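for the record, two folds in this file. i put them one after another cuz i was lazy. first one right below, seq on top, structure tokens after. the second one comes after a little note so u can tell where it starts
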Amino acid sequence: MGIGLAMMTTDCSTQPPLPSASTKGQRGAVFVVHPEQYPTTPGVYLFRGPGDEVLYVGKAKNLRRRLLAYRPDAPGLSLKTQAMLRRAVAVETVCTATEKEALLLEASLIKAHRPKYNIVLRDDKNYLLFAIDHQHPYPTLRTVRRVRVSKHTSYFGPYTSAGAARQTRRIIDGLFLLRKCRDTVFANRVRPCLQYHIGRCLGPCCLDVPREEYAAIVRQVELFLSGKSGELLSRLRQEMHQAAQALQFERAAQLRDQIRAIEATVEGQSAVLPGEHEDLDVWAAVEGERGLGIAVLFVRQGRVLGANAFRLTAAALQEALQAAVLQFYTGGRLVSSVLVTAPALPGAFAEALTEVAGHPVRLRSVRGERMRGLVRMAEANARQAQQVVPPAVRWERVVGPNRDVRRIEAVDVSHLHGQGVRAGMVVFEDGAAVPSAYRHYLLPAAEGRGDDLMALRLWAERRRAAGPPWPDLLLVDGGQGQVAAVAPLFEDLGVPVLGLAKGPSRRAGELEDRVYLPGRKNPLPLRPGSPELLLLQRVRDAAHRFVLAGQRQGRRQGLISALESLPGVGPATARQLRQRFHRVAELAQATEADLIALGLSPQRARAVLAAAQEAVSTANGASVDAMYRRGEEA
């Protein structure tokens, strides 16, 4: 998206401030903007701080007129803007041909730079969706998090609660006879699985199931997920009567039971917009002394599926709401209509929204009492988010006074008996995870040593070579030794390094995390349960989970590589075998029936067994088995 936006912009040279205007970020001094230097075209402007840091990104229909609002004597200059101007040392402009392009470029730059003084939702997660790929002759219901625009795939959702999505999936699996297996398993099966024998699948993997019959079930699932239960029940009742008239009483009884189960499932669901079959997202914002609260309701087929709310520290409600909506849909999210309760939206907003979403989006207006009820519900969620104030974190206890801790990086090291050494780094900004900035580091120079301190030093060298943005705080999972291994490489950058380690008592229920500083023997006296310690623990735990996930993925890949070294074993077969066997020797002792049960054909099963037995009986068997063991999960 960034490339496309750059191509849309027109040539507009950056106008540097006058020398007398630059304050070099001195505390208390305000950066002076000279609007007469800037053009009158649409575009975006970027305030930059020391070290070329992007502090704020804004868009304007007329850049010169908009920058007038940043003069020190401008009326209504908010405290937040004053704080930003005290840190700014330069302002840049990029001209665009239209206001719509300015909106798009602003959203792209905010997503790329995540400026401190902008509205940044920090909601990178994608909600759960159900997907059906109609290109497959016998499609299954998949759970996904990303929408890939395709005329062959149907999406249903979003589900903000994973529990609600799992419950819906369990209901569908019990009501409809769709296959449950993955495509790779489906392609390799030679006999039906347990789902067929307990009456929860038609067994199209092995049996001759008419595609028309299976397609009818897929259509039933689509009607159910679309909220069109009335149409689904009507069709099923018609089929039941036709089966009864044809004296197919067993089929009629099955349809009767399915109808009753569906009626019991949808009995508790109530449509807030009866007769509406269009997906709708309702946005609302409320303003108060504690900042802004913004909420979105997800309405699908007249029913509210879920909601999400954000708390922002911003002054301009309408500007914040527009920025939040564009950021939320950047990258493509499932929506066809949006209701934004803003007093007035520019004409370019709908065009920009369609472009960032990747498909046509319709802006709706409030009509009728039921629609106003949805707006009130969204406002209630926004008000609740606005009133929730997180506990204040006093970083001066940790990193000293006059330091602004916004970006925290945390690192942890993982290996299995000295093999597969890697470091995992996570990033948190303003207390929220930034998964797009997470990184794995493979450390081959530390292989076979089992030296965590050496691994940390190697990681610190790699991180320093990567360059900015530098963290305001670097957290290491460990104590004095781990901190001493990392801190010297960041000392000249002014990045404080902390270590978070377990206390002497490691029994369940008696864990005591302690914070260590470079050159300090005793840990910091942080109170258990304090906001500072709780945040550090959350960041440390995220780093631990992230590096372990990478370690397990690496072991799985190593295990598959070991299997693929056997003659006649490809990637698909290796993945199947990995789920059952833990050693090459164990595979060699298996029977042909064991492999057929995994979905292998008799010919393939005999070939794999012969290859495994030959590997174990030769001198190479030990090395192959060692590869297998290194790939095994701890």
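(here's the note) second protein begins now
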Amino acid sequence: MSALNTKVYMAFDVIFAKALSVELNRDLKNAKIEKINQPSSDMLVLSIRTSAGQKRLVISASASSARICFTEEKNENPQTPPNFCIQLRKHLTGAIIDSVDILGFDRVIEIKMTSRDELGFDCKKSIVCEIMGKYSNIILCSCEESNRKVLGVLKPIDFSTSSIRQLLIGMSYELPPAQNKTNPLFETREGFETKIYDSDPNAGYKFFINNYLGFSPVVSRELLYRAYGNEELNINQKERLWNEFSSLMDKIKNEDFLPCCVIEDDNPLEFSYLRLTQFGKQERVFDSFSELLEFFYLQKEKNTLLKNRIGGTLSVVNNAIKKTEKKIGIFEAEIQESEDADKYRHYGELLTGSLYMLKNKAEYADVPDYSGEQIKTVRVPLDYKYTPSQNASRYFKKYNKLKSAKKNATIQLEKARLDLEYLLSVVNSLNMCENSADVLQIRTELISSGYLKDKDSFKKKKEHVNSIPLVLKLTSGRVVRCGKNNIQNEELTLKFSKKSDIWFHVKSGAGAHVVMECLPDEEPSSEEYTQAAMIAAYYSDLKMSDNVPVDYARIKYVKKQPDSAPGKVIYTDYYTAYVKPSLPITE
């Protein structure tokens, strides 16, 4: 599966690569490579038999998700394997892994192996994984003594691409050009303080990046945050920064690593080999670096795919909303214009009653009006091209036309307002989507409503929709279910709930149907009512308000509105609570 996210995450630094290699060396030593596949242009998957059983190792050279880790993800392989995959199968199928380690002090992880040549003799081979963002690459090498000869390369680099470093079959493998920076593992306090004195006071976290090998921005910021509580380089308190720096180096030398990831709203933000206190957000610690990388990149990819699917659907819905709002404006204008219909009928009646006294080719007529308590004279505009009789007839026709238009516009206006209400509810549903199945269910709903074309109608098998309502618990432990779209709302309320359950919905707005489970004749506590109402307000288009009205009633009083859009119901015997949108905090 190739990642779609184009952002390069610099958390994969040299020290992280070292921590990962230590873990992989422990798990892969003496393991046997059984299968090699290349599901995409920049990804390899190796099936490996280890002492702990069969494992799948993914090696990605993607610019946005370069990594090497174990994976549980199933990938679809091309019918014809790429040339690089064929080369790897030729040289490495059946090979035994000897060790995994970084080369030099760079983001280069080498997997050394013992395989057999064409004559059956043992020979040394290796896969060199350069995890370097957009410069990531995978190289197959022979390892005779200290010389590494390139046998295959995923992304060949010739002289036209780079005049500094080439990677072509037959050449000796060389590490990327060394940077003129200090290896932090060998730094002394005197050298550290000298570098601080010589640095720009405004360098901030770049102090580490500019002076030391292997530091990512996130780790650099973390050291400053731990020392000073901010990202500024405080030269006058260099001792505090040295203490944090030396403490980290001691942990690295002792291979004391901690695979952890910062998460916000189930979205992974950053990962590292140490705790990241700078974010002040939820942090998840993993059992292994492989598990961390697998979670981080797959979740990022799923979020990107979900965002793209939601964005495409949301664009269609927003366009429909604009068209509907435009229709509403037109119908309202027509109704406003038709308010003059009675005036035109009155003009026609006045002209008809005074035809005997009117002259042709006049621009107006002053005629007596006997409709009120007192007789008054009314000036009626005329078209001089027509006779008074024809002018009267034109006024009656205009009256009938406006009267008919008002009736039709009133009907269409009501329909357009219902359509707008439905579309706004779809927007709210899209904001609640947690996975692709949720989006697919909404798209299915939009297809049935006529807002989307069914592009998959020609396919024999359609994608299976497996989307279910949210299940939440109140602080008391009582279960509350929440529909994430109109189809779920309708099924939850009218199909799966009991008559004794209590239904909640934001008043006069788009929102989720929230159902609180109740036994017959059971009366929940006031706190449970409040929390359920707060959930209904939270999953509505009034989420950002402080005081939201939420209606609630027993399910037996909630009915489907005939011939209405999905999720549209009518209800009676209800009460209204005013709450602040929030989700209950449970252990």
